[in-house]
Amino acid sequence: MSTVTLYGLKNCDTCTKARRWLATQGIDHRFVDLRAEGVERERIRRWLDEVGPETLINRRSRTWRELDESERTVTGDGAAADLLQQYPTLIKRPVLELDTGGVVVGFSGPRYETALAGAD
Questions:
Q1: Domain extent listing, the chain
Q2: Secondary structure (3-state) at 68
Q3: Cβ 81 vs Cβ 56: under 8 Å
Q4: Which of the following is catalytic: 4, 6, 12, 84?
Q5: What are the pLDDT digits (tens) for 32-76?
Q6: What pLDDT score does 101 carry?
Q7: How far apart are the C-alpha atoms of 105 and 79, rounded to whole Å?
Q8: Nearest by Cα to 42 from 78, 3, 90
Q9: What CATH number labels 4-118?
Q10: Among 8, 22, 40, 79, which lies 20 to 30 A Cα-Cα from 31?
Q11: Tens digit of pLDDT for each residue in 1-33?
């Protein structure tokens, strides 16, 4: 099985659950803390192409609520990528990225199983 990368925040409960699930399944993975390490704009663009801004942007986050109205008016994937790179805590997490290019946003054991089965 190939290595997967999990993007999230080290103190996020859902990210911790996802990391624990991957470990219990014996799935080799690398964890990237979005706050500490950030994420490249091109990677965010690929995620947006794959899942769209409605899935990737966490509109329930405190960061989203603290943005001014002009920043919240995200039109186009380029503007969304810029916003998410500037405020990585706006990225709905965790983001599971497969070596094959697939992306799963959020944590669900069954969804991870399906995505990882397709990555073999």
A1: 4-118
A2: coil
A3: no
A4: 12
A5: 999 999 999 999 999 999 999 999 999 999 999 999 888 888 766
A6: 81
A7: 20
A8: 78
A9: 3.40.30.10
A10: 79
A11: 567 999 999 999 999 999 999 999 999 999 999
List, in order, residues 6 or more apart from 87 with CB less than 8 Å away. Answer: 63, 67
Q: Is 18 left (phi over 0), alpha (psi -120 to 50) or beta?
A: alpha
12 belongs to the catalytic site: yes
Burial of 52-64, coded b for 16+ CB within 10 Å and e otherwise, reads ebebbbbeebeeb
Using CA atoms, how far apart are residues 8 and 14, in angstroms rounded to an integer? Answer: 9
Spatial strand order in the sheet of 103-105: 29-33, 4-8, 95-97, 103-105
| Per-residue pLDDT reduced to its tens digit, 60-117 | 999 999 998 888 887 666 888 999 999 999 999 999 999 888 999 999 999 999 999 8
